[in-house]
Amino acid sequence: MAQQLDPVDVVTVGVGWTGGIVGKELSEAGYEVVGLERGGEVSTEDFLTVHDELGYALRYKLMQDLSKETITFRNNVDQTALPMRRYGAFLPGTGVGGAGVHWNGQTWRFLPYDFQIRSHTIERYGRDAIPENMMLQDWGITYEELEPYYDTFEYMAGISGAAGNLQGETQEAGNPYEGARARDYPLPPMETPPALERFIEATENLGYNPFMAPSANLSEEYTNPDGAQLGACQYCGFCERFGCEWGAKSSPILTVIPVAQRTGNYELRTHSNVVELMYDENAGRVTGVRYVDEQTGDVYEQPARSVALTAYVLNNVRLLLLSGIGEPYDPETGEGVVGKNYCYQNFQASATGFFDEQFNLYMGAGALGASIDDYNGDNFDHADLDFLHGGNVAISQTGDRPIVNNPVQEDVPSWGSEFKARSLENNHSTLSIAAQGAVMPFRRNYLDLDPTYTDQYGNPLLRMTFDWRPQDRNLVEHIGPQLVEIMEEMGAETVEGNTSLEGSFDIVPYQSTHNTGGAIMGSDPSQSVVNSYLQCWDAENLFIPGASAFPHNSGYNPTGTVGALAYRAAEGMQRYLGDQQMLVSPV
Questions:
Q1: CB-side neighbour CA atoms (13 Å) of 270
Q2: Is 514 designated active site?
Q3: What is the pLDDT along the chain (587 residues), one digit of tens a residue?
Q4: Entry's Gene3D superfamilies (predicted)?
Q5: 35 with 12: CB under 8 angstroms?
Q6: Closest by alpha carbon to 366, among 512, 151, 488, 565?
Q7: Where are the beta strands (DSSP E) in 369-478?
Q8: How far, in whole angstroms, is CA 577 from its chain's centroid?
Q9: Contact status, residue 519 vs residue 544, Cβ threshold 8 Å
Q10: How far is C-alpha 367 from the geometric centre of its chain's CA atoms?
Q11: Directed axis angle between helix 559-579 and helix 17-28, to 10°?
């Protein structure tokens, strides 16, 4: 029997970037907020001098326990989905701060094109440019409307970078293709090591427009507008899958969560696994959440005036399906919305160069990189191409840690004496560039509940159905050769390029944790789960920020847009708590 708790104003389900931002904004506004996090608490002190590559990078100490909850996966509806028993393609985090603790720190704004992609495509290329079964749609919000929220997130997090489009004027140092911004980044770009200088020089020689990538690894010490103090990056190379020991990688545990706690209106409950949103379908509202204390096994019901579903993409969608909120998506009819438009990211176009000179590649940072956007979005003419969008092209120096840094040429065995010798030879002389390709939504790429497999509580697991489409293959075939040309211009002695995408999507190798969609935003309830304030059409007091709201995936990392949407949702929640009504009228 569940224990009934006293009602509160707001509950957040998950305490990462989105849950932390919502919790901070609502508690500062005077509302009583409870943050429920199924993992434990972590702090900067937990990572001090702990360069444990085996524990964090290979044994996933900051990630979800797959023995208790996982997903099932298949490439198409004719296959039987099987559980993901060990980590591969992506790494959902757990614990306070979520992925905002173990992320690399790459912090992009999506292009203005992204938010109106369907309208733009039809206007420029005609309706026939959208392939059959591509579920392309606008977001229900424009870049210009979202820009102030991007700005707020960047100044809260202390992002390092250089504006390329400041108040509509092109700036020399930054990205000339970005949307107009009201002000520059709060901190200057990171240092530019020799490997990145080589990329910048080569791309300039080829007529591209390189710039230093925006980074949440701070280039200088910084005090944000809330008074949170962050350190300067030491370029130690322990960012990806690690917490930062220097407090120099922006994180919810350094910024928004402590600020929320200082208000006296915020309560953080760890080891609290939400298993259901309590939904009154007749009233069109959620009444609260049901959760399990994972340390005691006790079950609680927490009533709330409003709920923010701020877990990871896959967990957001699964909780909606388990709670019966919204119509589940049906790929056969194309009807329904929950689980629709699942997208991943396409990192298949790449080039690796083997040089006859040494670089100091052990030093680095998660978001230390240089980029070009000449092949991203609609920054190049697609009239004679058989794909939409594109991808950000980048070189990153994240720090080559000792265990898994074994670069060898394609014709070298993956073990044995030759492998060891060539690994040592190539250790500091191998550079790679890749395109982070956008993925468009297709009718039979979606999320639903698995009919066979369950979690530790007997609830159905989430089932993912996903495969590459001709759109993805054509993107790689177009951009891949350009990367080979760039690497050759950089002076590599030998270049190995990946210029084609063969076979089905493989969930085994790691690619990125950039899952998106499943609870998408829009202006039409028949085509989306939430409106432009991330307010659920079927439960007016439920808000669902995060990458689950993306109608497609762009050619960038998602976190900057996730942060902007979280601030938008927090504003919407404050308005709702005052007015108790839908904030946006459906079309």
A1: 9
A2: yes
A3: 899 999 999 999 999 999 999 999 999 999 999 999 999 999 898 888 878 999 999 999 999 999 999 999 999 999 999 999 999 999 999 999 999 999 999 999 999 999 999 999 999 999 999 999 999 999 999 999 999 999 999 999 999 999 999 999 999 899 999 999 999 999 999 999 999 999 999 999 999 999 999 999 999 999 999 999 999 999 999 999 999 999 999 999 999 999 999 999 999 999 999 999 999 999 999 999 999 999 999 999 999 999 999 999 999 999 999 999 999 999 999 999 999 999 999 999 999 999 999 999 999 999 999 999 999 999 999 999 999 999 999 999 999 998 888 999 999 999 999 999 999 999 899 999 999 999 999 999 999 999 999 999 999 999 999 999 999 999 999 999 999 999 999 999 999 999 999 999 999 999 999 999 999 999 999 999 999 999 999 999 999 999 999 999 999 999 999 999 999 999 999 999 998 888 988 87
A4: FAD/NAD(P)-binding domain
A5: yes
A6: 512
A7: 369-372, 391-396, 430-437, 446-454, 460-465
A8: 28
A9: yes
A10: 14
A11: 30
| Residues paired with 181 in a beta bridge | 166
| CA 426 – CA 419 distance, rounded (Å) | 10
Three-state SS sequence of 467-513 = CCCHHHHHHHHHHHHHHHHHHHHCCCCEEEEECCCCCCCCCCCCCCC
Q: How far apart are CA 131 and CA 427, in angstroms?
A: 44
Please give the single-letter amino acid code of residue 354.
Answer: F
Please list the residues that pair with 434 across neighbouring strands.
350, 394
Q: Return the closest-CA partner of residue 555 out of 505, 516, 518, 527.
A: 516
Q: Which CATH class is domain 3-74+86-125+139-579?
A: alpha beta
- Global pTM value: 0.97
Active-site position among 102, 389, 514, 552: 514
Instruction: Give the domain ranges of the chain.
Output: 3-74+86-125+139-579
Tokens of 402: 């000792």
CA–CA gap between residue 310 and residue 369 (Å, rounded): 29
CA-based nearest residue to 174, from 147, 205, 213: 213
Count other C-beta atoms under 10 Å from residue 534's C-beta: 31
Q: Which residues does residue 498 pair with via DSSP β-bridges, in sequence order?
A: 350
CA-CA distance, 226 to 229, in Å (whole number)?
9
Strand partners, 35: 12, 268
Task: Calculate the alpha carbon distances from 448 to 81, 319, 497, 554 in Å.
Answer: 11, 11, 36, 23
Q: Which residues contact 474 (CB under 8 A, 6 or more apart)?
A: 385, 386, 387
Nearest to 188 by CA among 206, 215, 210, 166: 215
d(CA 463, CA 443): 15
